[in-house]
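A note from the maintainers: we've had questions about how concatenated examples are separated. There is no special marker in the raw files; a new sequence line simply starts the next protein. For clarity in this README we add a label.
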Amino acid sequence: MTFPATAVEAPLSMRSATTFLAAACVVLGVIPGLVVPTLVELAPGGASLAAQTRLRVPGTGSLPALALAIALIALVALLVRARGKRSAASAPVWACGQRVEPALDWTSAGFTKPLRLVLEVVLRPERIVAVRSAGGVVQEVEYRATVPHLFDTVVYRPVVRASLAGAAVARRLQSGSLRGYVIYLLALVLGLLVLARTGALS
């Protein structure tokens, strides 16, 4: 298990790959005419598309993506200059800008909670909530949740109990007494004779 305190930034090789993909998305969004006409020609039917692909909204005319990109870049530059030297509190990027505190650590139960809620009918989790109050004010709340192993409770444990019960009966029969074993043999022979006499063995 990796704890937040030991987490580090992704290596440059991983960041460069995602940066390249993000840059490609930006370029295709600003200048879609570089790729979209070629992709349209590959479609069945021999369709064609103008080289200058633009976003056309009915009633508004043509909305050029390149002009919008330039305006957004100018707006971002203006906001950065207006901010000056002020900066937000430092926080790791992988924590979404939130300070890492032990009380906010995610456990495996937090990640599996949606799955346990969806499969609640199958998993049948057991929950125990204990509330301790004093003077009408809640002082402490203890919550415990466990997911029983269905194979152990439904299949394995009943088989084990039946096997142990059969072993206990067999242990009583195996008393170690020679007289007891002779009686068992006589009873078996008599039983076979009775079955043969009645025709059950024919």
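[label: protein 2]
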Amino acid sequence: MVVELRRVYEKAERDIIAELTRKRSLDLVDYADVAALERVQAILRKMTDKIDEEIRPAIEKIFYKEPKDLYGYSNAFSLTSTQTNIVETLVNNYMGLIQEAADVAYTSAAGFLQVGRLEAGEIRTSALTSVANAEALGKSWRAAQSQMIIDLTNKGITAFTDAAGREWDLTTYCNMATRTTARQAEVAAALTSDDWDLWQISSIGSTCRICAAYEGRVYSKSGLNPDYPPLSSVFGKIDAFGPDALENTYLNIHPNCLHSLMKYTTAGLTEKQIQRDKDFSSFEKRPANVDYRSKRQVEAYREKEKARAQYRSDLKQWERYRDELGEQVPRFETFEKHKKAGDDAYKAWESEYRSRRMREANALKDIGGDIP
């Protein structure tokens, strides 16, 4: 699901960048804003329409997985009413996220097209100086356009700004939404495969503070078992005053959560063990607003997050190198191995990439002089 839909987002972002950096006229910085924005809007509409066609079958496919893929549970030949409601909720929530991302991306594109006007953001300033200098001197605009493409590709088309002020580009944000929705569908498929009521969230050791409060506990799917908290208390309710039903929850602790659910049974357990699990699961006896991780677990989580951040950084670098050097840079997994080893192959790619960027910078300087 993630791989198929990722192509749609990436193509949309590439098309928008191509549109925003396309040659408009010979008159300094005339970008024909209205026409350009209409084409950007058409690209985004095409993207959302394509996703709207593909998302429901993609989610339903998760419910129809083979038994070996779906936690060993029986394969369904038709969706139950509960599953149908959950699919509908997931589709609506997902399309809401994608439409919101498209709206912000359109605004981002509109901002970029304000070149030469009162507002002057980082990318607009770069475009203004490089293109204006090149065209005012009557020289080739291609080197300036190339630099604009590099700037805008590196920055990305903003689709979301989080609470910390970080900007998410269109592809990254939509990929996150897709992974989260796929995970929600997997969880829902497992939970609705039968009427089993008690479920336990796995413990993975190095986890975030949010998940640490919930992992290892046993929950009641129906919310009717008085000895265990309702599963909706973990996933969160869409309608705070609605029922504890799965279709009224977000079906995950948080985006990109890696915790899994396992069926819980008291069979073979002693009364002492059963009581211990009840006490451990109780929010009265173990409040959810406490960080129960040990110092070692906190450090392990920080190390994992550091490794994840490094992975994302390496992936972005690989994308830049592939864009610049093409097929001479291998697939990401191979590139990452060479980078970690710091061997001659990696040093050669690094040197060639820097040389090309330096030549591009010099070409811009030659046609435009010093940037004021």
